[in-house]
Amino acid sequence: MINLTIDGKKIEVEDGKTILQAAAKNDIRIPTLCYHPVLEPYAACRICVVEVGLRGKTDLLTACNTKAQEGMEVQTRSKRALGARRMNVEMLLARAPAAEPIQKLAKELGIEKTRFAVKDPNEKCILCGLCVRACEQIVGASAISFVERGTERKVTPPFGEPSEACIGCTACAYFCPTGAITYEDKYGRKVIHEELHLGPTTAIRVPIRQAVPMVPFIDTDACIHFKTGECKVCAKVCDREAVNYDAQDEVIEVEAGTIILASGFKSFDAKRIPAYGYGRFPNVISALDFERLVNASGPTGGKIKLADGSEPTAVGIVHCVGSRDENYNEYCSRVCCMYALKFAHLIHEKAHADVYNFYIDLRCFGKGYEEFYHRLLKEGTKFIRGRVSDISDMALTKHEEGKLIIRVEDTLLGMVRRIPVDMVILATGLEPGLDQNQLAKIFNISCSQDTFFLERHPKLAPMSTFSDGIFLAGTCQAPRDIPDTVAQAGGAAAEALALADKGTFALEPVTAEINKDLCSGCQVCVGLCPFTAIVYEKDEGHSEINDALCKGCGTCVAACPSGAAQQKHFRDAQIFAEIEGIFLV
Amino acid sequence: MTEAAKEKAFRVHLMVCAGTGCVSNHSFEIKEALEKEIKKLGLDNEVLVVTTGCNGFCERGPLLVVQPGNIFYQQLTVKDVPHLVEEHLLKGRPVKKLMYTPPKEKTPIPVLSDIDFFRKQVLIALRNRGLIDPEKIDEYIARDGYVAMGKALTQMTPEKIIAEITISGLRGRGGAGFPTGLKWQMVRNAVSANGGAKYLICNGDEGDPGAFMDRSILEADPHSVIEGMLIGAKAVGATQGFVYVRNEYPLAIKRMTIALEQARAYGLLGQDILGTGFDFDIKIVRGAGAFVCGEETALIASVEGRLGEPRTRPPYPAQSGLWGQPTGINNVETWANVPSIIARGAKWYASIGTPTSKGTKVFSLVGKINNTGLVEVPMGITLREIIYDIGGGIPGGKAFKAVQTGGPSGGCIPKEQLDLPIDYESLTQAGSMMGSGGMVVMDEDTCMVDVARYFLSFTQDESCGKCTPCREGTKAMLDILTRITEGKGTEEDLSLLQDMALAVKDSALCGLGKTAPNPVLTTMRYFLNEYETHIRDKKCPAHVCRQLNVYTIDEERCLNKGKGCDLCRRNCASDAIQGAKNEAHRIDQSKCIKCGVCFDVCNFGAVKVD
To answer: Mean pLDDT per 10-residue run, chain B (610 residues)?
Structure first.
């Protein structure tokens, strides 16, 4: 440990720490510009100069890269240190008058106006070199560097042209303290409205706000370390040393007695309806896009904004996008009406814009829902009954210019209307997950016509399946809202627990069996069994039935050409005997 | 030289100076003319023409020294050659009119060592100047070259070598004056990272305006540098050396390349030198001519192929230098001093100089001085001795005003301090510094504000731009000085200039920035009245700052003496002069652009400047 004094305060720090680190630990603030904790100190701005007395000599040193030494007497605000700091800030103020950190620092140091010649009043770059060092030390790309000398010095890629070395990580812009570096987004602002991809995300994030477990993960597609092998900033700053770059996806095998399937749904892809222009018009967004936009942790901080950053004055919400439509899905997605009303309410509240709802029927079933609809009517939301035919930006009149025009047949007025709005939200419906059929196969359950999972009985066993011990919860079975899902999931959990608690379960007494002596090994039954209960034993040359899986449906019995497959308690002989008995009477 | 010539003895050697100054004054043509003439007269078996490195007395080039006899000829032209050869070499009559005659005297001085310029000099770093052909290693060896290296390699331990250098009191000749022995000890003690090599670097990035010592040594005696580095390599345990030379010195690069090849061919460089098992080799690295690369950390960055900008020390290069390895960097002149110290002993070296500064220092004496050239003088010599005895005083009977030492990093020393004995400490105390050894003499016609402005414009231009005070500060100071020389300065500018100079000096990152304000600070310290005259009276006492000059024509003189010659009117670029032949002329001040042409062209002294 090393003992020194800073501004008269006695301080003890570990060996190898800089004066700046020692000061920061003791809440003594030394202003810095070109310093960043994860980058090597550069000592170029000379703002952190402090007066250091050591062994009878005093000197002006930069705190950012001067190691603390035993017996140092540091003065961060002595006349000499402040004088040099003030002069340097004043000179930087002349160089980069538009740089906010400099303006702030100047104010702090009592500099009102610089006495030196200002070359460019809009200049922001203070030549601190954070971007250059970040690109070299963090990213490992070295795509930008200083060129020229003295006051002509500037930061640029080689020859001032777009460089192949640049991987577009924007780390330079991130490290830039003054906003002098801007970057052109390839898609403009449009990218934030693409499905589930609202703007650039950080490489380390919590998957969703409600994620379980609530821990961040590294997105290897976005992480600079996985691109260049450098960076590792997260590991450097993590006190708990929790960052592990070698972590791999792994398959976990769990033995379970009961299973609840809650595999969810997929949002309808609005691009499938080209007439609505999703993906073509930046201001036509899907319901999920809007959820992200209006979220306080979203890219705009919860402000409802158009792609150009302005606020909308009129918003259209199109209901039943992909639902109740012969061309896409015939069923009603159940949740869209209510969330569309919620959107309308939020827009009223946050953007004070006119809201138009285009609906076929409003399905505000359930407790409190109808009341919410009435509230919206009072708020002034406009409801237009009719299916939207198309959305375009082709203006016919002056007041349509620059707007999105929604063409709709107003069935209550009996006419086609054109409604100009700034933003269109498509109330996209719910669809079964992409891998629904595969899942069904794995778990030995069935799907209904619309590929949602089929329950054992719609009224009497809505969370059970035809496979014992496998239960359903939520939108994998049918579109439903959150309260319904929670209720169903509770039921499914109770059923699963009851079964697990019992520890045993009664087998179906009526199952099929195969008479080994008669079985020719033709395997007709294997393919037919809906419960994959029959396996062919290759070594022994015959098929066998797993009693635990067999549901006694009798398909194999009927199909077996040699009569080897027989239903217990319902053998051919027994049935024939019964028939004979009937005729005897 | 042909093989035959190698073994042949010659009656006379003609040492033609082939330093840069003389070469640009056609000394090679003179050499050719000499050889032609000698052949014509059938003297080619008796007389050998040798091209040497810089002789030092550059003012008088092209130079020729006839040996034996040490007869010094100067300011030769090709036309002089036939007469010279015939008279001196054939008839044995030295040609007086080609000899050097000191200003104000009438009799020429035939022998080189009798000339004041040479008499007061003590040659250690320049010990071989004018005596050997730098492109021939044999000539260097003939002058006891590589003897010191042999001694160091075979008879001395590294500790002994370092002790010898430490006792000698040799200090870095690059300017800062860090004790060389101590530096070597640091490199020796430093542990190389990952068991890697240690390096030596010869800093030949000489960039001060008006300084040409390093260039001259590299051109005139490259082997002395190589030998010095070999001794250093043995002392610190280095295996690879680099000579960093700026690309603007093509002759130095050429001669160094030849010298390295010859040393390698003789087994004096490379593997197993002199059979001692000691390996060391040297590479030349060419610099792109950035002044800041003379700063050691920037130089290292440049050698590594990175942007030439300095970094904070510590760690010093001796601890972590080139590619993170311990690296010893010394200036060309420092290296050239080493062989003599080892060969003749530390005590001999330490007997020269002052208590704190030992040995000699090479200065390039330039500016308003009669004998421009390269001089090597013992430490402790006074400025007066250099300027008046060696330099021969100020030309044109003008009064001495100041001398600028240390290049753009140094300061101006006024005539009150002419008796200052020169060493590192005294110069620093006077506000200047030793620097690499530039010495610019200024006379009464020099404006000190303009001098400060000139040096600052140099440092401003050469600042790498890494740190704020140097990049922005030198520019802002230059703006203020320019303002003052244009008559737009205010009283506040003076205090601002002072504050800035101190802040930049105090907070800049490297030596360049820390010393850049020195010319401003010293001129303000010694010549504040000139600043004040510029600001208050809007006058430049030396009439250098043209914007402050007022040109008028003495009408009486114009008419009486010059008969209204009309020369000024015809040369005036802005039609500011009215008058015609046989009339008195007048200047319309509203049109005058103060270019000073009228003043320069008037043959009758009728144009006055105020």
So the answer is: 60 89 91 91 88 88 88 92 88 89 86 89 91 92 93 94 95 89 94 84 89 90 96 95 94 95 94 93 92 93 92 90 93 95 94 93 92 92 92 90 89 92 90 86 93 93 94 94 93 93 93 92 94 93 89 89 88 90 89 89 88
Instruction: Give the pairing of strands B71-73 and B64-67.
Output: antiparallel
Quote the minimal CA–CA distance from B17 to chain A in Å: 37
| Domain contains A254 | no
- pLDDT of amino acid B378: 94
Residues of A in contact with B291 (CB under 8 A): none
Beta pairing partners, A9: A6
Q: What is the CATH number of the domain that holds B590?
A: 3.30.70.20
Which residues of chain A neighbour B290 with C-beta distances below 8 Å? Answer: 149
Residue A262 lies in a domain: no
* Bridge partners of residue A512, in order along the sequence: A567
Residue at B7 is within a domain = yes
B141 and B95 part of one domain? no
- Flag whether residue A300 sits within 8 Å of chain B, measured between CB atoms: no
Listed residues A76, A108, A140: the one ending a domain: A108
A439 and A459: one domain? Answer: yes
CATH number of the domain to which A61 belongs: 3.10.20.740
Residues of chain B positioned with their CB less than 8 A from the CB of A49: 506-507
Nearest chain A Cα distance for residue B282, angstroms: 30
- Is the pLDDT at A231 greater than 90? The verdict is no
Overall domain count for chain A: 5
The reply to whether residue B473 touches residue A60, judged by beta carbons under 8 angstroms, is no
pLDDT digits (tens, 9 = 90+) for A277-318: 998 999 999 999 999 889 887 777 788 988 888 899 999 999
Same domain, A495 and A540: no
Tell whether B125 is covered by a domain: no
A132 interfacial to chain B (CB closer than 8 Å): no
Residues A285 and A193 in one domain: no
Indicate whether A479 and A348 sit together in one domain: no
Are residues B438 and B452 both part of a single domain?
no
Q: What is the CATH number of the domain that holds B344?
A: 3.40.50.11540
Tell me which residue in B468, B479, B496 faces A117 most closely, judged by beta carbons. B479
Tell me the two tokens of residue B348.
């001999």
pLDDT value of position B8: 75
- Out of B312, B476, B506, whose CB is closest to A116? B476
Contacting A residues, span 76-105, partner chain B, CB-CB under 8 Å: 80, 83-85, 87-88, 91-92, 94-95
Burial of B118 (0-12, 13-18, 19+ CB in 10 A): buried
- State whether residue A496 is helix, strand or coil: helix
Q: How many CB atoms neighbour CB B98 within 10 A?
A: 20
B272 and B174 fall within a common domain: yes
DSSP string, B296-324: HHHHHHHHTTS------SSSPTTTS-GGG
For chain A positions 498-557, those within 8 Å of chain B (CB to CB) are: none
Distances A52 to A1, A61, A80, A379 between C-alpha atoms, Å: 19, 7, 11, 67
- B-proximal residues of A, 112-131, CB under 8 Å: 115-117, 127, 129
Instruction: Write the pLDDT tens digit of every residue in A73-112.
Output: 999 999 999 999 999 999 999 999 999 999 999 999 999 9
Q: Specify whether the CB–CB gap between B129 and B307 falls below 8 A.
A: no
In this structure, are B403 and B517 located in the same domain?
Answer: no
Confidence of residue A193 (pLDDT cuts 50, 70, 90): very low
Q: Strand, coil or helix: what is A303? A: coil
Closest CA to A283 of A423, A126, A109, A492: A423
